[in-house]
Amino acid sequence: MTKQFAVIGNPIEQSRSPELHHAFAEKLGITLHYSKRLAALDGFEASVRNFFEDGGVGMNVTVPFKEQAFALCDVLTERAKTAKAVNTLWMQNGALHGDNTDGQGLVDAIRALDWPLEKTRILILGAGGATRGVIYPLVQAGVKEITIANRTLERAVQLVEDLHDAVAPAQLNVMALDQLAGDFDLVINATSASLSGDALQLPAALRFNYAYEMAYGKASSFLEQAEQRGVPSTDGFGMLVGQAIEAFSIWHGVKPQLKDFLSKSS
């Protein structure tokens, strides 16, 4: 019987997870079926329970259910605990396990670009869930210092306080988004501002060597500004593929090579 996998969210039509997982499986000679599941906003838990009771093996979770998935799990990885959000589920010995592969997906995508991470200084724009999910894996990858810039400074301060024990090896700082300045190896945009009319302006006092936009598939003023400076930059497609590969490796015990799948037509 073909093993069943799925991605659950609301909305869900935009998800590229089925195409990615089927591509990984084809490359590695694995037989599986991966589908999209639309859950009612108040029906997430029931949908997850039904999926696994029907013999489902693994499930990815997308917006807006990652926090609910975190609360539902019996066993959590360290990176899921730090992120307080789960995007990968599987059943093991009767217990629902949860992980967050977003941050490792980002790390792997940056490494695939041959951009440095060891002993670097990184600025992350935004203090929401996307930022929370990537800090622990970045620190594990050897990043020396991470500064979080946010419109509401208090939210960035709270995030740093929440993560202090989990990421003790690295130095965490905060900065107001309207006071951007300083020298950084890499700037990561985890806000939606550069995709909206409320475009984020990067001042001349902010200097950086690389730029990573977490979003993908849309025009980004953040990337446009990086390109105007002649700074190497990319959107978040590599992160999307990377987090999917990490989930695939959890379920199947084998890890596809990220560079094999970085063409956006894959």
UniProtKB/TrEMBL annotation:
<feature type="domain" description="Quinate/shikimate 5-dehydrogenase/glutamyl-tRNA reductase">
    <location>
        <begin position="117"/>
        <end position="194"/>
    </location>
</feature>
<dbReference type="Pfam" id="PF08501">
    <property type="entry name" value="Shikimate_dh_N"/>
</dbReference>
<dbReference type="InterPro" id="IPR006151">
    <property type="entry name" value="Shikm_DH/Glu-tRNA_Rdtase"/>
</dbReference>
<comment type="function">
    <text>Involved in the biosynthesis of the chorismate, which leads to the biosynthesis of aromatic amino acids. Catalyzes the reversible NADPH linked reduction of 3-dehydroshikimate (DHSA) to yield shikimate (SA).</text>
</comment>
<keyword id="KW-0560">Oxidoreductase</keyword>
<dbReference type="InterPro" id="IPR041121">
    <property type="entry name" value="SDH_C"/>
</dbReference>
<dbReference type="InterPro" id="IPR046346">
    <property type="entry name" value="Aminoacid_DH-like_N_sf"/>
</dbReference>
<feature type="domain" description="SDH C-terminal">
    <location>
        <begin position="236"/>
        <end position="258"/>
    </location>
</feature>
<feature type="binding site">
    <location>
        <position position="212"/>
    </location>
    <ligand>
        <name>shikimate</name>
    </ligand>
</feature>
<feature type="binding site">
    <location>
        <position position="102"/>
    </location>
    <ligand>
        <name>shikimate</name>
    </ligand>
</feature>
<feature type="binding site">
    <location>
        <position position="243"/>
    </location>
    <ligand>
        <name>shikimate</name>
    </ligand>
</feature>
<feature type="binding site">
    <location>
        <position position="87"/>
    </location>
    <ligand>
        <name>shikimate</name>
    </ligand>
</feature>
<feature type="binding site">
    <location>
        <begin position="150"/>
        <end position="155"/>
    </location>
    <ligand>
        <name>NADP(+)</name>
    </ligand>
</feature>
<feature type="binding site">
    <location>
        <position position="236"/>
    </location>
    <ligand>
        <name>NADP(+)</name>
    </ligand>
</feature>
<comment type="similarity">
    <text>Belongs to the shikimate dehydrogenase family.</text>
</comment>
<dbReference type="InterPro" id="IPR022893">
    <property type="entry name" value="Shikimate_DH_fam"/>
</dbReference>
<keyword id="KW-0028">Amino-acid biosynthesis</keyword>
<dbReference type="Pfam" id="PF18317">
    <property type="entry name" value="SDH_C"/>
</dbReference>
<feature type="binding site">
    <location>
        <position position="78"/>
    </location>
    <ligand>
        <name>NADP(+)</name>
    </ligand>
</feature>
<feature type="domain" description="Shikimate dehydrogenase substrate binding N-terminal">
    <location>
        <begin position="7"/>
        <end position="89"/>
    </location>
</feature>
<feature type="binding site">
    <location>
        <position position="62"/>
    </location>
    <ligand>
        <name>shikimate</name>
    </ligand>
</feature>
<dbReference type="InterPro" id="IPR013708">
    <property type="entry name" value="Shikimate_DH-bd_N"/>
</dbReference>
<keyword id="KW-0521">NADP</keyword>
<feature type="active site" description="Proton acceptor">
    <location>
        <position position="66"/>
    </location>
</feature>
<comment type="subunit">
    <text>Homodimer.</text>
</comment>
<dbReference type="Pfam" id="PF01488">
    <property type="entry name" value="Shikimate_DH"/>
</dbReference>
<dbReference type="InterPro" id="IPR011342">
    <property type="entry name" value="Shikimate_DH"/>
</dbReference>
<feature type="binding site">
    <location>
        <begin position="126"/>
        <end position="130"/>
    </location>
    <ligand>
        <name>NADP(+)</name>
    </ligand>
</feature>
<feature type="binding site">
    <location>
        <begin position="15"/>
        <end position="17"/>
    </location>
    <ligand>
        <name>shikimate</name>
    </ligand>
</feature>
<dbReference type="InterPro" id="IPR036291">
    <property type="entry name" value="NAD(P)-bd_dom_sf"/>
</dbReference>
<protein>
    <recommendedName>
        <fullName>Shikimate dehydrogenase (NADP(+))</fullName>
        <ecNumber>1.1.1.25</ecNumber>
    </recommendedName>
</protein>
<keyword id="KW-0057">Aromatic amino acid biosynthesis</keyword>
<comment type="pathway">
    <text>Metabolic intermediate biosynthesis; chorismate biosynthesis; chorismate from D-erythrose 4-phosphate and phosphoenolpyruvate: step 4/7.</text>
</comment>
